[in-house]
Amino acid sequence: MKGEKGFTLIELILVITVLGVALSGLMLYFIQGVGTSHESQQRTVAVILAQDLMEEIHSKCWDETEAAVSPCAGTVTASAVGPDGGETRSSYDDADDFNGLNNSPPKDSQGADMTGFSGYTQQAAVCYVDSADLNACKGSGTSDYKKIVVDIQYGGGETTELVTVVANY
Fold this sequence. Notes:
The protein is an alpha+beta fold. It has one domain (about 35-165). Helices cover about 30% and strands about 20% of the residues. The chain is built from 1 helix and 5 strands; from the N terminus they run αβββββ. It has one helix spanning about 10-60, and strands at about 100-105, 120-130, 135, 145-155, 160-165. Strands 1, 2, 3, 4 and 5 form a 5-stranded antiparallel β-sheet that branches. Strand 4 and strand 5 form a beta hairpin. The longest helix has about 50 residues, at about 10-60. The termini are far apart.
């Protein structure tokens, strides 16, 4: 059978073996990609939750005493940080009311649990800072600057953090 063209059985087995080894190596990358896509999704959800809470805080007046100046206009005298007597999440009216917020699962602006976020924790901290050092919270006293920190924890210890400073101007 000289002159016939084609592959021998041995050549075909070698090609199948080489392709099998090469493809199994490539499959490892696909498997790892599927695993990390879940982490990326969790991180994206955490960023969205953090941005949502930060926007809610930004939508409030700078301070409690500012509410007397309609609508949240003008500079005011700074007051104590934290929710004022009897305020709940749905009645927060200034940025520092969110200090000490710690919800798991996260809550919406009306204080209701957000469904589908059982593995996430929503936290916020607000403090006065000096203009000379916007990173360090003042131990006591007030200023014309408030630092707002929003943390979303998820996935067994991962944290997404947003930080901003708002001014009384």
